[in-house]
Specification:
It contains 13 helices and 15 strands. The protein is α/β, with parallel strands linked by helices and about 425 residues long. A seven-stranded parallel sheet has the order 3-2-1-4-5-6-7, sandwiched between helices. The chain has a six-stranded parallel sheet with strand order 12-11-8-13-14-15, with helices on both faces. Strands 9-10 form a two-stranded antiparallel sheet. The N and C termini lie far apart (about 60 Å). Belongs to the CDP-glycerol glycerophosphotransferase family.
């Protein structure tokens, strides 16, 4: 037996033990005034924005679980914020003493929630990739509440997680709050971004182990740099850049001449949250990723590069989603022409298309989704907010971050 296989089996055994034991132990240990928040990777925006919102409106202790590896989130200096390692006795003890738990990918073997310890599944986006019980998600990650950014994808997700409709909270993905705090020009410059830019965010098709062998696949490697060559040329003519942010699990980094590639580690070093990078972009190129759903909030041009649509290994829901995307589905005939025309028009060309999709999916339109979530939980009796800390719900997005971004760039010049 190889060391990697042995390690995998030991981890599986530990998760099984935790999954069975933690609900029993949790029921016997009184909760204290504290919550636990866990995100993967540690810089994942849904978790980090909920942590910040809790520090604003919750008067108990907030325990942030540190990931054992990967980029570290720069944490605020706050007297009620405590950090512990996720893979530690202190982390388990914090979980057992918490009155509520927030996570993005499951936690400690994904035990069943108890009446005294609600589990809030922040997940990591709403998108067309099917979530199925039995494939590492769904029924294997139980929760009391499931957070979604849209009614359509949220209901599909809740069904996959075997939750009732009243356990679904369509309060928006908390990470989208970062869209309204776009990255500053100096921070962008440290990443090699020195002009207006389009962000390319492909979802992963395959992961690789440290040995270089493919570990998990949802299809072939998908679009490479050669497929964006026409876009690169068009952007160059307009003095713009193409920035690629691969998925953290992606087997390809898509680094190439003329393309600025940034990783989670690069963003962490520059102090730029991923959605703050999105907020500074002029347009988005993606595929089956959930990012386009969040990007609808900005009402900016979107293109969909899906050369493997016939062979992609994961089901899409709804099945006809590629027929009503809010932007150009890039093909062989004049690729990216419609997307570039929308860029030239400042996003007005396809604005009606995006608006129709926004209504179709039931997008929660807010610039304060993390606060919206905590207010919904407080209304459900899950968390008690400090007196006077709750804000009035804001149903329309805040000011367009492009306006402040343009001003910052002018001052930088």
């Amino acid at each position: 037996m190889t060391s990697a296989l042995l390690r995998t089996r030991l981890v599986t055994l530990a998760q099984t033990i935790l999954r069975r034991a933690l609900p029993v132990v949790s029921a016997a240990i009184p909760a204290r005034r504290q919550v636990v928040v866990s995100g993967y990777p540690e810089t994942e925006g849904n978790a980090s924005e909920v942590m910040r919102a809790l520090l604003r409106s919750y008067d108990g202790q907030v325990v942030w679980l540190r990931e054992p590896s990967g980029p570290r989130l720069a944490l605020p200096d706050h007297p009620r914020l405590v950090t512990v390692d996720k893979a530690s006795v202190a982390g388990l003890w914090a979980y057992l003493r918490a009155e509520a738990v927030f996570f993005t990918h499951g936690l400690y073997g994904s035990p069943r929630p108890t009446r005294r310890k609600p589990l809030v599944n922040l997940w990591h986006g709403d998108g067309p990739k099917a979530t199925r019980p039995g494939n590492g998600a769904g029924s294997l990650i139980p929760s009391t509440w499931l957070v979604a950014g849209t009614r359509l994808f949220g209901e599909l997700k809740a069904a996959a997680f075997e939750l009732s409709p009243d356990q679904l909270l369509v309060t928006g993905n908390p990470r989208t709050d970062q869209l309204w705090r776009p990255a500053r020009p100096d921070a962008l410059g440290s990443l090699g971004i020195e002009a207006d830019f389009v962000l390319w965010m492909p979802t992963f098709r395959a992961t690789r182990q440290e040995s270089g062998l493919r570990a998990w696949s949802e299809g072939e490697l998908g679009a490479g740099v050669q497929e964006v060559t026409p876009l690169l040329a068009a952007l160059r003519e307009r003095g713009m850049q193409l920035v690629v942010k691969p998925h953290p699990l992606d087997a390809e980094d898509r680094r190439a001449a003329g393309v600025v590639a940034v990783s989670d580690a690069d963003l962490a070093r520059a102090g730029v949250p991923l959605y703050a990078l999105l907020g500074a972009s002029s347009g988005l190129v993606t595929d089956y990723s959930s990012v386009w759903v969040d990007y609808l909030l900005l009402d900016r041009p979107i293109a969909f590069l899906v050369p493997d649509r016939q062979v992609y290994g994961r089901a899409l829901v709804p099945a006809d989603v590629l027929d009503w995307l809010p932007g150009e589905l890039v093909g062989d005939d004049r690729p990216f022409a419609r997307f570039v025309a929308d860029l030239d028009a400042g996003g007005t060309r396809d604005a009606e298309v995006r608006r129709a999709v926004t209504e179709r999916v039931g997008l929660h339109q807010s610039s304060r989704c993390a606060d919206d979530l905590l207010e919904a939980l407080a209304a459900a009796g899950v968390l008690r907010a400090r007196s006077g800390s709750a804000c009035q719900a804001q149903t329309e997005p805040g000011p367009d971050p492009r306006e402040s971004q343009d001003g910052e760039r002018q001052r930088a010049r």
